[in-house]
Design goal:
The complex is a heterodimer of chains A (172) and B (237). With 172 residues, chain A is mainly alpha-helical. Chain A folds into 2 domains: 78 residues, no CATH class; 88 residues. Helices cover 77% and strands 0% of the residues of chain A. In chain A, α1 packs parallel to α6, α2 packs parallel to α4 and α2 crosses α5. The radius of gyration of chain A is 19 Å and the shape is flat. Chain B has 2 domains: 153 residues, Rossmann fold (3-Layer(aba) Sandwich), CATH 3.40.50; 76 residues, no CATH class. In chain B, α4 packs across α5. In chain B, β1 and β2 form a beta hairpin. With 237 residues, chain B is of the alpha/beta class. The chains are: A mainly alpha (172), B alpha/beta (237). At the A-B interface, α7 and α8 of A face α3 of B.
Chain lengths: 172, 237
Amino acid sequence: MMDVWALPFFQHIVLAGLFVAIGLSPLSVYVVLRRIVFSGAAVAEVASAAVALAVLFQIAPFPLALTLTVVTFLALSRLADTTRLPPETLVGMLYAGGSAASVLLIVKAPRGEADILNILFGNILTVEPSILWAMAIIFALVLILQIVAAKEFLISAYDPDMGRTLGIHVNL
Amino acid sequence: MAAELLKAENLTVGYGDRAVLHGVSFTIERGDFLGVMGPNGSGKTTLLKTFLGLLKPLSGTIESFSPGDKHLLFGYVPQRESLDYHFPVTALEVALMGRFGRIGLFRRPGAQDAAFALDCLRQTHMESFAERPYRALSGGQKQRVLISRALASEPEILLLDEPTNGMDMVSERAIMELLSDLQKEKNATIVFVTHLLSTIERYAHRAALITSEGELLIGQKSEIMTPEVMTKAYKPR
């Protein structure tokens, strides 16, 4: 039987999976505590809508997707402080709105669905060493930030109102 | 005359554009033990959150006074149902959160902070539960831990949102006796929200009543807790 561990692409797959698990699993504790577990799905939908928009206007998709996603979630964070709606509702609205916008924009895009799907969905089988390095650096920074700012993460997720009364910045 | 800690003038509070309390003026002095009551949805918690700076007043001003022109330090005890019961923290770790504002950005709580938090648990008779998981405690014990957490921040005023909500009479009495002792021993300033008139009648020094019309009546219990005032406050809108 062929030793799959000797295959470089298989090693890359395992490393990529490990980086995601080690880098993101501690962060997921805070995501669950803040009751925004569907924010991952909502991020993907907003990014999809941004990519569809970029394809429609024939501009670079990555910078637009990154900018629009960050701006949308900063706006969501501000909105969460000024409304009595629970966070799950806001994330749900974003998810549905992002999905709807993606579909409408994809239909309008001249090169259609094929191009957009290629951009939106990567393939873990084709992860290259350069991507692995980027993942290692980004997830290491995420982990270090969580260790250094452990108490800020904890109070922001566990009891943000208490955090605010203590003078801690619980929002971005 | 006692020193003023909070002074509200012509204050209107609410969420978004919806005002729940209109044009109220009052002061809270050091050593005050004020109970706030009112019908459901009248704005008790909204008023508390405005005191804390979690909500901006829709109009009017709210000033706080602290020695040396520092920010007034609040000790906040939220409704205990608002916290996640399943998160694996001990009672001591919850109490330690009260120290976070004094530690500084990106610094970790030290042994002195842990000792201080333990002392706060001692004040609420929860020292022996320090290493127990918070989720394993009873409602009354959880409330004591949250009061310890508020005390750990060394506040100048304690604000409690429905501290005895959902408790039996024995637990309710124990919590209120604890607050009453803190007020007497330390001359602590305490403002608590409740829908139990009997709790205010028995423990508070002054009473505040939010009416269904969005007015705030505040004064001595004998002035506020009369049948006429109560009937007016609790009449359906």
